[in-house]
Design brief:
2 copies of one chain form a homodimer.
Chain A (H helix, E strand, L loop, with lengths): L4 E6 L8 H13 L3 E7 L1 H8 L9 E5 L10 H7 L4 H10 L5 E4 L3 H12 L13 E4 L2 E6 L9 H17 L7 E6 L9 H12 L4 E7 L10 E3 L2 H26 L3 H20 L8 E2 L6 E4 L6 H16 L2 H10 L2
Parallel strand pairs in A: 1-2, 1-4, 2-3, 4-11, 6-9, 7-8, 7-9
Antiparallel strand pairs in A: 5-6, 10-11
């Protein structure tokens, strides 16, 4: 047991701020005594929410910030202009060593920009990717990149593979994680220009366990632990994952409820359905880390509820304890 | 009622050739008296399959071809080298006006190459896209491109939108089809370089009903009728659609079957589940047309069974009757 992990939590980010964010913080400190949360945001509103709960007052504090960055604001402008926003104040806590990690359910663009401009990139990492962990039939996989670099280059994808491997091995405990690149077929000559150029780089890289191409249809089945692609493709894959699941499940429910027989059956299969839905609920794994920065930055879904915020906070523990940032720095030096 | 539609069917293509292909041909001529099928392949094997069924002998004939193009063969080499393959012979029937349409469950690469080299492109169409119709909560949508052009340019995507609109309006009967471009967010400034350059071209195009960006998670819900993207992204979307559905459904089944209560419930909800699965079964719509060629070319799934082959054949009727090829030519002239 080392020092506690201090998380700077953006109390004003996301659709359910500040109520669910504050609740998530309370749940996190109850769940683990390794965590201290600094709630950053409008002091009065945050304290009013906090007053609803009992918690260890030494482990949750409030840092006032008078401004809020909205989702629609142009990110660079917002980060540069709103010096007293909850996000900028929280980012500065990480930069100044007053917090180990930053968690926010706010604007993805502002998180990407603030992470790079304020927390800063590890030397040698040009493009820190956003890398959500998502559920498959065989356990969690990491999708890098999923939001930061829509026009990535082959050397970016190589670094995504290396950093993703370090993350999955050390944070998720998967030994020698299998790395695959998203492709339109399994043959080496397939792919667009980016994939064709990246493939040999991954093949030659000694410090990853590269297993070749993965077709999108193989992803939900869990054929790889680290799945590498540019952020445009990654976003489409992640959103299809959510979209197909939501549509299928709601159609199945609607169809079952349209007859007496179906309603009766629905009652009986409810536990089985619930179990599957829980297994495929991405929020179980918390938010997506922006990897390759000097400190830990976690982007939680905009729609995050208390449970997802709690999981995002708890996720910081193994990241910081296993010194992922140090390990990424070391892997860059070794090249 | 005009002339019958003559379909050149590759009897040797796909995992289940020739048995399921021949069966599909028989089912198609039974289903519609508008269709004549020319089964192209190893005469003896095809006739042995045909002998299993009763059918109108005037509406199914066999055209002998002694070679077969395998899935793993390099497409250009295969199409140029195997002059007496079922695919090349069938393509030539279309080229020479002895057939109106070509249907195959064989190698996608060879179909794309043969379509362009033998049947030929409509003047003004550089890159004919492969455009599968797939099921959504609100009915069928068309995904262009899904296999042909992994590194497409903005002007290609514009033509995909125009041809896709003609297809959905005339073949699927959707008036003024909504066209959207796949993107990582709904704001106009979002996207990779390709999308940012394509967006204004689509916005300015008078002969389509462009509704803006569509995020992948909105696709299964049916937010657009014609969905435009490069083939790399299209392939990922289509394959995620299949992969997530397969994984979720098999997990739900497995979970239900693991308890007595679940098994009983499964019996009761079976009709509801079946109805949903049928609605989301892409094979109901037949294969994917390769649009922008001088004749109709349809690629059916490699795993096609008789039902999908039958649907792919029947799909040719409205394409030919509505003169999609002529309408695409006209739309190019009008520009």
């Amino acid at each position: 047991m080392g020092n506690p992990i201090i998380v700077a939590l953006d109390a004003m980010g996301g659709d359910n701020a500040p109520s669910e964010i504050v609740k998530g913080a309370v749940e996190a400190v109850k769940e683990s005594d390794r965590v201290i949360v600094k709630l950053v945001g409008a002091e009065e509103a945050v304290k009013a929410e906090l007053a609803k709960y009992e918690y260890d007052a030494e482990r949750i504090s409030v840092v006032n910030a008078t401004e809020v960055i909205e989702t629609a604001e142009p990110p660079v402008h917002a980060i540069r202009g709103k010096k007293d926003s909850s996000m900028v104040v929280a980012f500065n806590l990480v930069k100044n060593g007053e917090a180990d990690a930053f968690v926010s359910a706010g604007s993805t663009g502002a998180i990407l920009v603030g992470g790079q401009l304020i927390v800063g990139r590890i030397r040698g990492i040009d493009r820190p990717p956003l890398a959500p962990v998502f559920p498959t039939a065989k356990g969690p996989s990491l999708l890098v990149d999923c939001g930061a670099n829509v026009d990535a280059r082959p050397d970016h994808l190589l670094k995504f593979a290396q950093m993703g491997s370090i993350y999955m091995e050390n944070v998720m405990g998967i030994k020698n994680p299998r790395v695959a690149i998203v492709n339109v077929g399994s043959e080496e000559e397939k792919g667009n220009a980016l994939v064709k150029e990246t493939f040999p780089l991954l093949k030659e890289c000694a410090d990853i366990n590269f297993i070749g191409s993965i077709e999108a249809k193989e992803i939900p089945a869990g054929y790889a632990d680290v799945i590498v692609c540019d952020a445009f493709v990654g976003n489409c894959i992640l959103k299809m994952f959510e979209g197909v699941g939501m549509t299928l499940v709601s159609e199945i429910k609607r169809e079952m409820m349209s007859s007496f027989r179906g309603k009766l059956g629905a009652l009986l299969v409810k536990p089985a359905l619930k179990k599957v839905l829980k297994k495929y609920d991405a929020t179980e794994y918390g938010g997506a880390p922006l990897i390759g920065l000097k400190g830990l930055v976690i982007k939680s879904h905009g729609s995050s509820d208390a449970k997802e915020i709690r999981n995002s906070i708890l996720q910081c523990i193994s990241f910081v304890e296993n010194d992922i940032t140090g390990k990424i720095k070391q892997s860059i030096i070794n090249q």
